[in-house]
Amino acid sequence: MRDKTAFKQVFKIKGGDFINAGESSIKIRNILKEIGIEANIIRRVAIAAYEAEMNVVMYAERGLMNVIINAKNIILRVEDKGPGIEDIELAMKPGYSTATEEVREMGFGAGMGLPNIKKNSDHFDIRSVVGKSTRLEMVFNLNGTKD
Amino acid sequence: MILKEIKELLGCEILCGSDKLQIDVKSAKASDLMSDVLRFSGPGKLLLTGLTNIQVIRTCDIAGICAVIFVRGKQPTAETVELSKNCDIAILKTDLSMFESCGILYNNGIRGVTIESKK
Questions:
Q1: ipTM
Q2: Is A92 on the interface with B (CB under 8 A)?
Q3: Closest C-alpha to B7, from B54, B68, B50
């Protein structure tokens, strides 16, 4: 890290925009590379960001992805305006999916997104209001991983 | 094995990245599910897939894969080819099926990537 001042940036994600889906995550990955974050952490952040970004594109109207980089950790917050998740426990179950046929044809919607995000982050929190929004928070420690 | 040998073994046509044929490939992933590709986050540099949309390239970019082989004679979209140029990812295609392609590569020493934990 260059200094201890937090770096913060917000990325807009458009629901249904499958052409540009993933671009914000790639930008975040490039920022982390530039700062000189460890490759293993970059890979985990990039995968989690990409899965979260794809979720917004697949299910929501629009969303914002916030990335905050501190001396201790990287925080990703993804908030969307969309249908929300009725049963979060069920949504976290590997293989459970409500994806449309269009999404599945693109190779997504296999019900691995949220479990994959959880697996790659050191701390994961998901909150949702049905019919309104979903908010994910992922934290990645910079000084060693949780396992 | 270098990518050039893989190209010859599978009778591939190069669609993008003819300057990358010297890439050394030891392991590969084969899937039509992009979330699975993201789960296999090991050292595999090659992906075999039957999906040809633009998200395949973005997934490879995120997962650190540097070459893609489209199987079953699938032709990627123009956007997919264009993005792979920008991402520095080589793309090839073969008329062989996924099963045959994987079998040939395995017989020639290429191994799979097991799902790994966080590290």
A1: 0.85
A2: no
A3: B68
